[in-house]
Amino acid sequence: MIPELGHFAVILALGVALLQAIVPLLGWRRRDARLLSFAGSAAQGQFLCIAAAYACLTYCFVTKDFSVAYVAENDHSQLPLIYRITAVWGAHEGSLLLWVLILSGWTLAVSVFNRRLPLDMSALVLSVLGMVSTGFYLFILLTSSPFTRLVPAPAEGHDLNPILQDPGLAIHPPMLYMGYVGFSVAFAFAIAALITGRLDAAWARWTRPWTTTAWMFLTMGITLGSWWAYKELGWGGWWFWDPVENASFMPWLAGTALIHSLAVTEKRGLLKSWTVLLAILAFSLSLLGTFLVRSGVLVSVHAFASDPSRGTFMLAFMAVVVGGALTLFAWRAPKLITTGELQLFSREGLLLFNNLFLVIAAAAVLAGTLLPLVLDVLGITKLSVGPPYYNVVFLILIAPLFLLVGLAAVVPWKRGDWRETARRLKVPAIIAVILMVVLPFALHGRTTLLAATGALFGCWAIFAAAQDVWRRVRAKPEWRAGLRAVPRAVWGMTLAHIGLGIWALGVSGVVSFGDEKDVRLARGAETELGGYNFRFQEAGEQAGPNYTAQQGTVLVEHGGKLIATLHPQKRLYPSQGTVLTESSIDAGLMRDLYVSLGESYDDGSWSLRVYYKPMIRFIWLGGIFMFFGGLLAASDRRYRLARAAERRAIEIAEGAVA
Amino acid sequence: MTKRQKRMVAVGALVLGVGLAAALGFTAFRKNMMYFYTPSDLLTGKLAAGAALQLGGLVEKGSLKRGEGLAIEFVMSDCHNAVPVHYEGVLPDLFREGQGVIATGHMDAQNVFVASTILAKHDENYMPPNVAKAVGEVDGKHSCAPFKSVTTASSN
After folding, report:
1. Does A306 sit within 8 Å of B129, measured CB to CB?
2. Residue-wise pLDDT tens digits, A321-357
3. Global pTM value
4. Which of A78, A107, A503, B128 has its CA 20 to 30 A from that of B109?
5. How far is CA A655 from each of CA A33, A74, A463, A642, A648, rounded to the nearest angstrom?
6. For the segment A193-244, what is each residue's pLDDT rounded down to a tens digit?
7. What ipTM was reported for this prediction?
8. CA of B71 vs chain A CAs: smallest distance (Å)
9. To the nearest whole angstrom, how far is the Cα of A388 from the nearest Cα of chain B?
10. Phi-psi label, residue A32: left if phi above 0, alpha if psi -120 to 50, beta otherwise
């Protein structure tokens, strides 16, 4: 009964989404306020429907209703409760349901927070979101319903893929989807602007907090994904340039470009059509990511669905959305162009370069991800490009971005002054150069070209960003008042740029000084890595809630002192007969010690993989900084004040008409 | 310079920059791309010794031998042809005889494939599409006895 209710709720949501897409459009044509204001109610109704459907599926998982095919495939009677709840998005059908739930949540948020927007604008935004939802509901109902029954019902479920039974993965997809789907709001604003022809500073101000919020979730999602891959895949890497990682990284790059170009559009009224194009691009790349992951066209850990009808539907849907948006853009954008003067050495000029490099970077990732696929589909050849391609291309593209990020806060809008810029950036530059030489030696006792470059870039980004806040604080007679006077948007930018610097320190540190080793150790034998002594003590059996594990004990000594006891495991999940390596990590801010078990040999020895990972935590710390930077920037007071002021102006205007 | 000239310079610099980036990207792409081979491709085609490539196939049953330390030898096959593989290191969780794997590495002078990394997939029903296709092409009817279960599992 419950699954049928869920299925029915999805159908109902489809109906409401259709109305939400069509009615406001009619209202806009006829200038009918009642039809326009229907959009908000529809958004709320749609959310109720899809939330009910999602609750139904969760209920099926919690109650272990194996008569539902999707539940039977991904649930198991011995699965702990928390993973039964997260298993809802553990595979294709359920993760799509999560996708539409989040899309509907964003739509609901737009309908609630946009009450202060002009009615036609907010109604059109909701209409576009309704169209996107409609597409996804159709996708679910036609190709991937999670509520399909299985007759006869099996006595036991097939279980959630053990690799997904991890807290990191429990929160990674929702975060990632919040970001992916969040770009649909920016997209909807862009389309609404193209339809109404209202593309001004106010439009940019409405769009900015939404875009920044989506970006911050995507940043967090990618960061969590990286952390999960590091500890769970047992290979000690934090980024693999796996096509699925790229699928989330491309919208991130486009979205980062978008939040910067939106700043130009808001402050200077320039780059309008470019901003709109970026909004379309960012969402198109989100859809492409969904297509790549969900259609199973990739050779990847994530490709769990390979059903041609799904791929075809996604491709057609993408063609409609992207093609439609670009057609609308080609038709309407020429009318929106304003001729303004843009000085290259000014904040907007530098942001233009920032956009250029970010978009080229996205294009490079796109080429590396899609070209092998296209060549394969066309039957030309089968090839793949390895991480070295991305590493080389990224190093080249990221260097100018780091130079720009330091200039960002210092060079003013309209026209920059070389001399003033040099005066203000002198101290950060000197600090960065000194630390470039000193930092690698101080932290690791030696240096490499990459480590020095990373220290230079990272410190430059950090100190140049901090310089701006420092200057603002010093402008006030008292430092507490000074700190309070710094707007949240500036704090946000500063924090995000510092995050980028921290990330650079982490990457260059771990790549330059990280070390790894595969060894075969008998009981009591030891090996040395990065100045640490790893002694393999013993291996024994250990029982978990739904697995049994071979557990090794490894004592880590440094300078004759015991500093950690690690327990790497080799888990056997009997439900699927799957073996999973569970690494054991002694985590620290400055270094991780990482051990994972290989396999046992007849003579009682084990193969082990041992890693020394200096500063790897900085990589994720950088992501966390960026997340909070986005949070501060999106919650800046001026968005609320400006919205209230605009609303008053509209009310006055409406009053005058009445 | 007049405004017009300035703009031309800016546009010129932009085109040059994008062109340079594209050229660099293309070079990096060419340098780092790896072709995918099956054992049959390897044995029938001409190949520069030492070139990096990906080899996809199935681990032949009963071929796995452990040597000193972490050394491992096994035979990778696609029903028609087989290539001996040498690897030193920890194998992935799902490495099993009869399973599809992708190895990255090069052929040495003795015609042994020396692998630097080995990938096996996380789902035991799963076979890398490259491998599935390669095995399927060699033997479309899946009558290749030892691998039958694997190939049929991958097609659903």
Report:
1. yes
2. 999 999 999 998 888 776 677 788 899 999 999 999 9
3. 0.90
4. B128
5. 15, 58, 51, 20, 10
6. 999 988 888 899 999 999 999 999 999 999 999 998 898 876 778 898 888 8
7. 0.73
8. 10
9. 6
10. beta
